[in-house]
Amino acid sequence: MAPLSPLTGGSAGTLSGPAAHALADAAPSVFWLDRADRPAPRTSLDADATADLVVVGGGYTGLWTALLAKEANPGRDVVLLEAGRIGWAASGRNGGFCSASLTHGESNGRERWPAEYEQLHQLGLANLDAIQATVQRHDIGCDFQRTGELTVATAPHQVDWLREDVGTGTFLDRDAMRAELDSPTYLAGVHTPDETAMVDPARLVWGLAEAAESLGVRIVERTKVTGLERDGAGMRVHTERGHDVRAARVALGTNAFPSLLRRTRLHTVPVYDYVLMTEPLSDQQLASIGWHTRAGVGDMANQFHYYRLTDDNRILWGGYDAIYHLGRRVRPTKDQRPQTFERLATHFFETFPQLEGLRFSHRWGGAIDTCTRFCAFYGSAHDGRVAYALGYTGLGVGASRFGAAVTLDLLDGADTERTRLQMVREKPLPFPPEPFAYAGIQLTRWALARADQNDGRRNAWLRTLDHLGLGFDS
Ligand SMILES: Cc1cc2nc3c(=O)[nH]c(=O)nc-3n(C[C@H](O)[C@H](O)[C@H](O)COP(=O)(O)OP(=O)(O)OC[C@H]3O[C@@H](n4cnc5c(N)ncnc54)[C@H](O)[C@@H]3O)c2cc1C
């Protein structure tokens, strides 16, 4: 078998064999959210209100902001406004890799902030420790497992990259890698323990919401914020329901959705990422692949796959295609993309041919807030009354707690270790307006796919972007 085939494309639309069979009954819904213990909807805003702090967005960023605000100052009156349901968006539908990295990986962080990278690394580890401590303190049943992460090489040039980039991990040659997790496509791997935990993403969101409410945060669902306006010394937050909330401070955790601040509208684009979930593996099926550490796995291609086990031994399998639609729109219709599911299913069985016969139970997608520096940026507006953390670019499960802490520092006007960071003070370059954003992203995606097929060699377009510190990732 050609070891590169899973990473080099695969046609769509003519699917047959194990992948077609496996996809036949997959439900077009999010496994994590599609559960009997999903909390009942909370009430909507049905009257004008006041608060010390309004948080917009009920994903991890918003919930951490509300929770940390209350933990720091129990007397602060906090209201969280969510347009849909808590965690319905990225926070409830992601892969559940809760990484210590605040910089979308070490190489991105080291390249952009070489002088402060060690500090960022330590802050990231402390952030992950604090997430773990919160999960324990509030008894959040989100299957938090600090398994670490496995990075696998599936093409010869990636083996050299892995050797150079072992970091704090352990290099595994082909045999050692296959003894841990067995795929004929693996040429080597690195296991980095401790820096990543695997979580059940929706249960983490639901648990954070419950913890925030236990401290007195008022959470309001199905209440979309339509605008912000200065009001005396504070802000007036307008909602679709016609009611306003007046507050001294406003925190925005709106991720890939249209920003409520004109100044950040061009700084992110919504990029769609897709995922398959299998049915639970039998003991025999699991034994056929191994996976003793149960660590989350990612491969090294530009178009990378990520995959992990769930507590009931299903495999979540996602990534590869990162789809951008003209016009920066976030729409539920984009959560399903048959050609991507077919490609992912084909790659799954090329990676684990031992699992032929296994079926997928769920298929879904979701929007990632990609920015040109690949990790969150922070800022404030309206003379410090409004602050935000946006642009996690596909690695926000852990980093969102740090983003929330920075948002609160900015709203408090506090001078902290966090606000002194160059990473926090600098902003990424924006994407251009349409149709230039679309054209540039398509060209970059094409060039990245070509580089994967060409021993990782980057063409002139990618080298120019690298030189400018720009790029596209998921
Ligand atoms: C398929 C997929 C897989 C991923 N896998 C991983 C992974 O394994 N590890 C990782 O670290 N990251 C992963 N990510 C990214 C991660 O999920 C996000 O970075 C993270 O959830 C961002 O949290 P958030 O709270 O900022 O945004 P969201 O969870 O998107 O929450 C934003 C919320 O704001 C609300 N909102 C927006 N505008 C308004 C408004 N005007 N009024 C009221 N409410 C509003 C939305 O309704 C939404 O609920 C993945 C993302 C996707 C889509």
Automatic annotation (TrEMBL):
GO cellular component: cytoplasm
Domain of life (superkingdom): Bacteria
Every FAD dependent oxidoreductase domain range: 52-406
Signal sequence coordinates: none
Pfam families referenced in this protein's UniProt entry, alphabetically: DAO
Statement: the UniProt record of this protein carries the keyword Chaperone: no
UniProt KW keywords: Oxidoreductase
SUPFAM superfamilies: FAD/NAD(P)-binding domain
Record protein name field: FAD-binding oxidoreductase
Lineage summary: Bacteria, Bacillati, Actinomycetota, Actinomycetes, Micrococcales
